[in-house]
Amino acid sequence: MIRPAVLGASRVAVVLPTYSWQAYNFYDSDQDGRPDSWYADSHRHNVLLGRPYAGSGKPPHYRTQQRGFLRFLVHTGKRVDYLTDEDLERIASGDDLARLYDLIIFSGHEEYATTHAYDLTQRYRDLGGNLAFLSADNFFWRVDAAVTGSGASSSGGISAARKHNSSASSTAATTEVVMSPRTSSRMPRPRHGSSAALVPWADTASITARGCR
Q1: Which residue, among 201, 211, 199, 161, has the nearest Cα to 182 in the 3D structure?
Q2: Which residues contact 133 (CB under 8 A, 6 or more apart)?
Q3: Residue 141: which domain range?
């Protein structure tokens, strides 16, 4: 993924669900015969974010959940900033996010989020920011980001989750994530009107079947 050279180059950001991609990634990096995912190994509670993707090398469910919308953006000439979940960790506050973007589109299955990303998004919404969620079960599990190792050999991942009612921010260095078997509270829907007024092409009526084919 090519990140913007400077955040806010476009007033619209599209967030790709990189934490969910790795949670569903069945790549066996330690070669123990079991995929390194809690969906394949009930004893596993963390995943490394830097792993290649299993199979064809594409993120899990990319074809059915991401490709159509991304093709629409490219083929219709829409200019947006593409961000990862890790990029959200590096933005200090919802106030900074609101200064950068008028609309943030969570383009896929944004199932996993850190406390920082959740609080950041909630603050952005409360300041009048526009949010669009193109999939279900968004912000469903809380995950914690941690760095394993040190120096050049350090790697990252995601790890044990609790409810989303904590106001404490997680570490900004994102390399490993762990989840617990408890669902989080849902993110309330935005209350500040339609993003179509600010970004006309975001109106669902303009996304034709041909554009997403």
Answers
A1: 161
A2: 106, 110
A3: 12-206
How many domains would you assign to the chain?
1
> Does residue 1 lie in a domain region?
no
- 189: helix, strand or coil: coil
Question: What gap in Å lies between CA 171 and CA 177, rounded to an integer?
Answer: 11
Residue type, 34: R
Instruction: Please check whether residue 211 is in contact with residue 75, taking contact to mean a CB–CB distance below 8 angstroms.
Output: yes
Cβ distance 108 to 24 under 8 Å?
no
Residue 129 lies in a domain: yes
Q: Is 213 part of a structural domain of the chain? A: no
SS (H, E, C) 51-70: CCCCCCCCCCCHHHHCHHHH
With contact defined as beta carbons under 8 Å apart, do 145 and 119 qualify?
A: no
Evaluate whether residue 62 is within a structural domain: yes
153-199: pLDDT as tens digits: 345 565 544 334 333 344 334 345 544 334 444 444 444 444 455 55
Tens digits of residue pLDDT in 13-51:
999 999 998 889 998 988 888 998 888 888 888 888 888
3-state helix, strand, coil in the chain (%, to 5): 25, 15, 60
